[in-house]
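Summary for the steering committee. One of the milestones for this cycle was to obtain a three-dimensional model of the protein with zinc ion bound, which we needed before selecting residues for the alanine scan. The sequence and ligand used are listed below.
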Amino acid sequence: MAPWGYEKDNGPAHWHKDCPIANGKNQSPIDLINGEVKYDSGLKPLTAKYVPFSDAKFLNNGHSVQFQPSAGNGSELTGGPLAVKYNFEQFHFHWGNNDTEGSEHRVDGKMYPAELHFVHWNSTNPSFKDAVGSGGPNGLAVLGFFLKVGAENAALKPITDLIPKVKDAGTSVTVPSNFDMQAILPATLTDYYTYDGSLTTPPLAECVKWIVFKQPLEVSAAQMEAFRSVINRDGKPMGGNYRPPCPLHDRAVKTSFK
Ligand SMILES: O=C(NCc1ccccc1)Nc1ccc2c(c1)[B-](O)(O)OC2
Ligand SMILES: [Zn+2]
């Protein structure tokens, strides 16, 4: 099979052929249905401590654009539903070709124009790859932020300004060392949905503690247009790089808010 993608001939409906777990019982994304979630007063805020990076790349890997520091950058995530410390690995985006689609998770069936994933791995493992393969839903902790069109996002501007430099698949640039990743995050990481799920792209491993924030981040229309100028490995606009929602089966979605 041609490498996986989001086109008619290699999109989500085909992924099960190489990754049978695609039809598993803990797949992501899902539709977050407010009438079916359960408030959990034990869910505390999360703490993300992101340290400045000396050498980080921003790259087009053919199916997303991704910020990736060199391994061992000392940034970490704790708290919320997490029992141990998680190390930061990378962040990347999913978006649509217009403002009515683009996010992977949905809220009561509503899609946002884009979704930002901050990926972290369980520090009791020797590496990210081991964490993915560690079995069970505690290998990775992924923070999901919906993006909506509004004011320019100054914290994301250094990243969206680099997009024209990684327009084509397989290209990358070095990110200026004064890039402040912490500034992207809201001051307090409260009000989130959390559930056990999977990677939303092959290998679709069911190793993720998902933490999806209720409050969207804003980006300007110009910043959204920058994403829509990115080209995928088939030479087409990358927009539409989102997987449709998967069945919840017998999982519970908990919220840190009432
Ligand atoms: O890291 C990925 N692949 C490369 C890989 C390397 C080593 C072992 C397995 C996989 N994928 C991936 C990681 C995290 C997330 C997603 C995809 B996402 O669902 O898009 O948002 C969260
Ligand atoms: Zn993602």
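Key point for the committee: The radius of gyration is 17 Å.
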